[in-house]
Amino acid sequence: MAYSLDYKKRAVEYKQEGHTFMQLREAFGIPSITYYQWKKNLENGFYQVKVIRQRKGKIDKEKLIKAVAEKPDAYLYELAKEFNCTPQAVFCMLRKLKITKKKDLYL
Questions:
Q1: Domain total in the chain
Q2: Taking Cα atoms as reference points, which of 75, 73, 78 lies closest to residue 102?
């Protein structure tokens, strides 16, 4: 079960105020080992907000959209030469952009 950071802080503070482990279990429903883990993680800064960096890829999304709009029938290897990457990289980026093969029905 996942607990919020505020809940964990309150539980650790509750125990540090002088309450027993029995009172901690009744109030928060956690065993003593969980208290020790939460206390250690809070002291070590484990719960600090981590900055998630995005990788800079070779393929610019806007340029790829323009290239597909100009040449909708281009093969993946042709687009890959234009962006100096592999056809698989172009395929993955097109998938992320939700651009798929056109499925026109001719009646």
A1: 2
A2: 73
Per the CB < 8 A criterion, the answer to whether 32 and 21 are in contact is: yes
| Closest residue by Cα to residue 35 from 58, 19, 49 | 19
Helix 61-70 vs helix 87-96: crossing angle, to nearest 10: 100
Does residue 10 lie in a domain region?
A: yes
Q: Please name the amino acid found at residue 67.
A: A
Give the structural domain span for 24.
5-44
9 found inside a domain: yes
46 in Cβ contact with 76 (< 8 Å)? no
pLDDT digits (tens, 9 = 90+) for 13-53: 999 999 999 999 999 999 999 999 999 999 888 777 777 77
Q: Is residue 56 part of a domain?
A: no
